[in-house]
Design goal:
This protein has 129 residues and is mainly α. The chain is built from 6 helices and no strands. Helix 1 runs antiparallel to helix 2, helix 2 runs antiparallel to helix 6 and helix 5 packs antiparallel against helix 6. The longest helix is centred in the N-terminal third of the chain and has 30 residues.
Length: 129
């Protein structure tokens, strides 16, 4: 796999991780906390986590070759809903940062978009906690 494909693989994995983390928080706010405002804000952020020509990145997906796909002990254990939200909002923020940095090699506009998503997630995190 060439370096371009590896970069695309990194972007694909982090797009998925970002949307998944946001979705977990969104559903907790929606179904457990009955918080319409925060669930709508998270949904809006999640819908903005798109990238043009996504198929290019998807083609580089390599689940079999993922050297860390096994769940770690810390990932397998959660103590309560709050710990699930903390883990997932942090996961989303970290993924937004990876996307921001890696997309600087492809599209400054996309890199900036994910920077703004990261900052929006910081604001939502404050509102949640």
């Amino acid at each position: 796999m060439g370096m371009t494909n590896k970069l695309h693989r990194l972007i694909d994995a982090n797009l998925n991780r970002l949307r998944e983390g946001i979705r977990v928080c969104e559903d907790i706010e929606r179904y457990i906390n009955d918080n319409k405002t925060l669930s709508k804000e998270l949904k809006s952020i999640r819908h903005n986590c798109r990238i043009d020509n996504y198929e290019i990145y998807l083609q580089s997906r390599d689940i079999v070759g993922d050297v860390l796909k096994k769940t770690t002990d810390s990932e397998a254990s959660r103590s309560d809903i709050r710990s699930i939200q903390v883990s997932n909002i942090k996961r989303a923020q970290e993924s937004a940062r990876v996307l921001e940095e890696s997309l600087k090699l492809i599209s400054i506009a996309d890199a900036e978009k994910f920077k703004q998503i990261r900052y929006a997630l910081y604001d939502v995190e404050k509102a949640i906690f």
